[in-house]
Write a structure and sequence with these properties.
Blueprint: H1 3-8, E1 13-18, E2 23-30, E3 38-39, H2 44-48, E4 68-71, E5 76-79, E6 82-83, H3 84-90, H4 93-102, H5 108-119, H6 129-133, H7 141-151, H8 165-191, H9 204-213, H10 224-236, H11 244-253, H12 259-270, H13 278-289, H14 295-303, H15 324-339, H16 346-359, H17 362-366, H18 373-384, H19 391-411
Antiparallel strand pairs: 1-2, 2-3, 4-5, 5-6
This protein binds carboxymethyl coenzyme *A (CMC).
Length: about 450
């Protein structure tokens, strides 16, 4: 819908009729800049005693936001108005972080100040190193991320007062700066190598590669093609409006919890295979498929309603068209494999064939299931040598800029309230308490539960 048509809608309302009781309720329509209008139901319960029911929030706008715009039908993703492809082609991750946080691209002077500020926060308190030792060596790095990022709240008390705009900004800088350090330390801990301190003369992505793969005994030279690919990966994962983890960050923050705890909550939500965990799941799936001959078997499995298997890296709640991030990832995958001299990557071959078959399959066409950002990203990360269990950590590093920008926007929103959804209660009505000896003697306990 164009801008002109939008303003024509200005004072439109919808009317909800309760025919049985002869009542009606006016629901004002609110216009966004672009994209669907929303019905304002905030007074509905007060006026009618009714709630709305929308499991998974498929038709619910939980907030207003100026940060990210998605048109899922057309496959459009924009941050602060800038198209994701243009950002990937021309910008870098630090610029995008600034854009998300501050609303505009930085001048060259502000860019220098911002990158300098971020680089001054890359180290973590030495005491935090002890926390790693409390984890098993084979702990999933996302488990460590949840713990260590949450623990930042216990170390940086000078940036946890959410009512102070300066403290909010310092916490934002700290989180963006420290995430790569925390993630790389989780990896080094798992393989028993010494932690590598950040190097502030390197770019954000170069520094992360250095902390991941350098060892103190050898010189480490960062490969620019790989650091550029990683930078694109971070840009593509920076923000994606009100997805599960971002909504988790906002909901946690709506109670005025401190920003480090809120981001830890976001990391927990991201970990699931339906969300950020999908990039790891894609590589596991491609490895399991193992040969092009077995693709049709897996396509069949994914269509079988009695089988919980889904084609990982396919489908999206919002995109009903090719995910614009997936096409950038696909091109970048080719660049990375070329740079590394990998002529035939068996997983990429299976992925390309799988994509071709799925995109021509009636089931996938009808349900508008296309490859999403996670479908090709794992191939890039694997080629760079990241272990699969680090993939979602990389997603979390990129997404932190979006989480913290959305958190800040929420705190600064004058209509912000504690998030408190209601429910459709379908349980028992009132029952009188019975003493144990008067209850039925049926045990619900299964042998399997006792370990
Ligand atoms: N393979 C096979 N069938 C699928 C798939 C898939 N990957 N995704 C959705 N469907 C089917 C689903 O069974 C349902 O069929 P029906 O209408 O007959 O019941 C229909 O498509 C709609 O699916 P849905 O589960 O109602 O859609 P949703 O919006 O709730 O779920 C999703 C979106 C991303 C969780 C889902 O597509 C999925 O599980 N995909 C695989 C996991 C994945 O790749 N996740 C990464 C998402 S992108 C990164 C991020 O932002 O986190």
């Amino acid at each position: 819908m164009n801008q002109k048509k939008k303003s024509e809608n200005k004072s439109k309302t919808y009317t909800l009729f309760d025919n049985e009781n002869g009542l009606s309720y006016e629901l004002p329509l609110i216009n966004g800049t672009v994209g669907p209008d929303v019905l304002d139901i905030s007074n509905l319960y007060k006026d009618s005693g009714l709630f709305t029911y929308d499991p998974g929030f498929t038709s619910t706008a939980s907030c207003n936001s100026k940060i990210t715009y998605i048109d899922g039908e057309k496959g459009i993703l924009r941050h602060r108005g800038y198209d994701i492809k243009e950002l990937c082609e021309n910008s870098n991750f630090m610029e995008v972080c600034y854009l998300l946080l501050h609303g505009d691209l930085p001048s060259s002077e502000d860019y220098k100040k911002f990158t300098n500020l971020i680089s001054k926060h890359t180290m973590i308190n030495e005491q935090l190193r002890n926390l790693y030792g409390g984890f098993r060596r084979n702990a999933h790095p996302m488990a460590i991320m949840v713990g260590v990022v949450g623990a930042l709240s216990a170390f940086y008390h000078d940036s946890t007062d959410i009512n102070d705009p300066n403290q909010r900004m310092i916490a934002s800088h700290r989180l963006i700066a420290k995430m790569p350090t925390i993630g790389a330390m989780a990896y080094k801990y798992s393989i028993g190598q010494p932690y590598i301190y950040p190097k502030n003369d390197l770019s954000y992505s170069e520094n992360f590669l250095h902390m991941m793969f350098a060892v103190p005994s050898e010189k480490f030279i960062v490969n620019k093609t790989l650091s550029n690919a990683l930078d694109k990966f971070f840009i593509l994962h920076a923000d994606h409006e009100q997805n599960a983890s971002t909504s988790t960050v906002r909901l946690a923050g709506s109670s005025n919890a401190n920003p480090f705890a809120c981001i830890a909550a976001g990391i927990a939500s991201l970990w699931g295979p339906a969300h950020g965990g999908a990039n790891e799941a894609v590589i596991n799936m491609l490895t399991e498929i193992n040969s092009k001959d077995r693709i049709s078997e897996y396509i069949l499995k994914s269509k079988d309603k009695d089988d919980p298997f889904r084609l990982m890296g396919f489908g999206h709640r919002v995109y009903k068209n090719y995910d614009p991030r997936a096409s950038v990832m696909k091109n970048t995958a080719h660049e990375v494999l070329n740079e590394l001299g990998i002529k035939n990557d068996p997983l990429l071959d299976i992925a390309l064939e799988l994509e071709k078959i799925a995109l021509n399959d009636e089931y996938f066409i009808e349900k508008k299931l296309y490859p999403n950002v996670d479908f090709y990203s794992g191939i890039i990360l694997k080629a760079i040598n990241f272990p699969t269990n680090m993939f979602t950590v990389l997603f979390a590093i990129g997404r932190t800029s979006g989480w913290i920008s959305q958190w800040k926007e929420m705190i600064e929103d004058p209509v912000q309230k504690i998030g408190r959804p209601r429910q459709l209660y379908i349980g028992n009505e009132y029952r009188k308490y019975k003493p144990q000896e008067k209850r039925e003697k049926i045990s619900i306990f299964k042998k399997l539960w006792f370990k």
